């Protein structure tokens, strides 16, 4: 699907993972691993359970600090790194397990993603100063556009906890979009979904990439999804990268077949 004409052509590296090693005690979760993510591409990270996929995302967005190696983002080596620092620099993350506020409405959950773009202080908000009111109006309008983009206008006021799982995942995607991130890290965005929900999420991942130009790095177990929507695929096995390339090349790689796919697919 990504071979069609794009509004945002793939560019040079925006994120580089250089020789990352991550240890937990004496156990190596990631070993001397390197790959790059190109601007505007959709990059999938795949591998068996326990291969180090989520640990890799945690290193990229600053939850974990690797013992060795460097993360380079937009040409800058990230010496000090934390989720908050990376979010402010334009890198946002969704998680394998939903982290939504179940009693809040869809719109209010998406508004949480605008926190980074709010400059009004507590007193300005409390006294509803012109600056605070203008900021609130602008952020709400931005989130209303996301609601419309994701085609969830009819549930904008519904508490998230009352929605089916697939729609909750879409709300989480909306909240990530609200950060205006240049890169979205999606940790199993289709976990627990049925076939129809997966198809819908694939459509919106491609739509976000095409219309917003957002670069995406995603972990996904469904190989059909990976082959359909990815521009490039990194394969991890026991914390080591065993393949990195276009989906069709990775699919035919014997090391990948042995480690993960099990059998070749014609």
Strand content: 15-25%
| Major sheet size, sense and barrel closure | 6 strands, mixed
Structural class: alpha/beta
Mean pLDDT: 88
H/I helix tally: 10
pLDDT under 50 segments (min length 5)?
A: none
- Write out the CATH superfamily name of the largest domain: P-loop containing nucleotide triphosphate hydrolases
Gyration radius from CA atoms, angstroms: 19 Å
CATH architecture field of the largest domain: 3-Layer(aba) Sandwich
Order of helices and strands: EEEHEEHEHHHHEHEHEEHH
The share of residues in helices is 25-40%
Number of strands: 10
Describe the oligomeric state of these chains in a short phrase: single chain
Tell me the strand order in the biggest sheet: 6-7-8-3-9-10
Describe it for me?
- By secondary structure, this protein is an alpha/beta fold.
- Helices cover 37% and strands 24% of the residues.
- Strands 6-7-8-3-9-10 form a six-stranded mixed β-sheet, with helices on both faces.
- Helix 3 packs across helix 5, helix 5 (130-149) crosses helix 6 (165-178) and helix 6 runs parallel beside helix 7.
- It is globular and about 60 Å long.
List keywords for this structure.
single chain; Rossmann fold; 10 helices
Give the SSE layout.
Layout: E1 13-24, E2 27-38, E3 42-46, H1 53-60, E4 68-73, E5 76-77, H2 83-88, E6 91-94, H3 106-112, H4 122-126, H5 130-149, H6 165-178, E7 183-187, H7 195-211, E8 215-219, H8 223-229, E9 232-237, E10 240-245, H9 247-252, H10 254-261
Parallel strand pairs: 3-8, 3-9, 6-7, 7-8
Antiparallel strand pairs: 1-2, 1-4, 4-5, 9-10
